[in-house]
Amino acid sequence: MNEQSLLKDWINESRNIVFFGGAGVSTESSIPDFRGVDGLYHQEYRYPPETIISRSFYRSNPGEFYRFYKNKMLFPEAKPNPAHIALAKLEEMGKLKAVITQNIDGLHQAAGSKNVLELHGSVRRNHCTRCMKFFTLEELLSSMGEDGIPRCSCSGLIKPDVVLYEESLDEDVLSRSVAYISHADMLIVGGTSLTVYPAAGLIDYYRGNKMVLINKTVTPMDDKADLVISGSIGEVLCDAVGV
């Protein structure tokens, strides 16, 4: 039996599937991984991405933070790709119980997934740091002044609900993720290098014997998986789910 047939069989047998995904899911919607520093990067920015996307940098240099954030992390025109659609279908079938994602783009919800745990927050949610008023992504963009910094009508600075470097992951989201993974009868891991912690450590809580890794490149966890499939996460899931 080949890998794809085995994946289909496991999905058919399972009733409590959890999906854990990373940047490779979003790149198939033409959203580049902001950690991938391209050739033009150093001509545009004087600091590495990890410095710019940090809490202290956001506070001390909001103009440069938002220049990077808008150019490298916001893709409001992006659409769900086949991977998002296949996962939403699995949930609709009653098999997939949760999507746990490291991505911040909100595309799982846009595809129809209901139970999405966003480990690193979402660009779709933003709040004034002074009065706590809520702003959508569109409202954030329209509130940017000539200096590129978004401000509330109360003059407070608007902050995206995205977990920055130097910030902790939400404890409630983490504990719920652990609960879903530890009770899953099948864990599908896709589009992630499994090198960004603490998120990557969550798969250690899986106790079953159907852990599937779907990735274009090898990961440090390949030898721990019960099935490894090399390829496009969208193509593999669509074929397995039948969408």
From TrEMBL:
Q: Which reaction does this enzyme catalyse, per its entry?
A: N(6)-acetyl-L-lysyl-[protein] + NAD(+) + H2O = 2''-O-acetyl-ADP-D-ribose + nicotinamide + L-lysyl-[protein]
Residue positions annotated to bind Zn(2+) are: 128, 131, 152, 154
The protein's matches in InterPro entries, at most eight in alphabetical order, are given as: DHS-like_NAD/FAD-binding_dom (IPR029035), NAD-dep_sirtuin_deacylases (IPR050134), Sirtuin (IPR003000), Sirtuin_cat_small_dom_sf (IPR026591), Sirtuin_class_U (IPR028628), Ssirtuin_cat_dom (IPR026590)
Q: Which residues does the Swiss-Prot or TrEMBL record annotate as the active site?
A: 120
Q: What is this protein called?
A: NAD-dependent protein deacetylase
Broadest EC class assigned to this enzyme: transferase
Q: Which family does it belong to?
A: Belongs to the sirtuin family. Class U subfamily.
